[in-house]
Design a protein that fits this description.
The chain is mainly α and 286 residues long. It has 10 helices and no strands. The radius of gyration is 19 Å and the shape is globular.
């Protein structure tokens, strides 16, 4: 296993490259379907795809791409550079006895810190603009930032924060802790045999799928708060009760299969790029 730790900006650059690669290959289309299903939880997967396609053919699946692209670049750079920095900082400052006794502590702290940073700085505003544009029924209608600010004020950029931050916190804390456990399991399983590429792909797909299962309800709530005609209830508990009453558990988890696929594709694409360029933080290398 490689012992060197790359510079934080190296992790950030290739983290961005990995996320843009995933978005361009499959992520945008999957994201469009996920957002449509979460905005309309009563629609099945086939009906959601057909509903999107009838707007303007295959091009309909790329509505909101510019906001997704901006998010991929921002998330890739800040997330992976910040993760690298925090991992290094925790490794240097926390006693080794504490790290060995509470192995989950560092991934938890890094995940929560990264989630707070990215949600507040750029993710909530860009997610809000993307969701509004994707849920606009007029194909030619685009969401322009200045128009939104003039009409609704700066509060639009923080609509859905109460759903987005828990989703990001759960996603990254879970992602990094589960990754750490799967990684240790694979290392012990392959001890003396060498790590194969299929081991790395399996590790990243399992981690992404696990995170998707845990965060789908929060992602649904975020979309419902940010869509063009948002739910008015701001209390997250009452909102879930209302969504469960209207759509049932099946409706809440309607987007789960596509989210698992997207999370798996994202994990495999991003980690493959970062592994190839030796840009993964030391604690995440196989």
């Amino acid at each position: 296993m490689e012992d060197s730790n790359p510079s934080w900006y190296i992790s950030g650059i290739f983290g961005s490259l990995g996320q843009v690669t995933e978005l361009t290959l499959a992520g945008q289309v999957l994201s469009r379907i996920i957002t449509h299903q979460q905005a309309h939880p009563h629609l099945s997967l086939i009906r959601s795809i057909n509903s999107i396609y009838t707007q303007n053919g295959f091009l309909s699946f790329y509505k909101g791409y510019r906001w997704n692209l901006a998010m991929s670049i921002c998330k890739g750079f800040t997330r992976w550079s910040f993760n690298n920095f925090l991992f290094s900082f925790c490794d240097k400052t926390l006693p080794s006895s504490l790290q060995s006794q509470f192995s989950w502590l560092i991934p938890l702290l890094v995940g929560l810190g990264g989630a707070a940073l990215e949600t507040t700085l750029y993710l909530c505003p860009l997610e809000s603009l993307k969701t509004r544009e994707m849920t606009e029924t007029n194909w030619k209608q685009k969401t322009f930032m200045w128009q939104v600010i003039r009409a609704e004020g700066l509060r639009i950029f923080f609509r859905g924060w109460t759903g987005l931050f828990p989703r990001q916190a759960v996603t990254w804390a879970t992602y990094l802790m589960v990754y750490d456990k799967y990684r240790a399991w694979i290392i012990s399983l392959r001890r003396g045999k060498g790590i194969l590429m299929r081991d790395k792909l399996m590790l990243n797909f399992m981690t992404g799928a696990t995170a998707a299962v845990l965060t789908t309800p929060l992602d649904l709530y975020k979309t419902q708060r940010q869509k063009l005609d948002p739910i008015q209830e701001k209390n997250i508990i009452l909102s879930f009760k209302s969504l469960a009453k209207n759509y049932g558990i099946v409706g809440i988890y309607r987007s789960l299969p596509i989210r698992i696929i997207r999370s798996g594709v994202y994990a495999v694409a991003t980690f493959t790029v970062m592994d190839f360029f030796n840009a993964l933080p030391k604690r995440m290398k196989l």
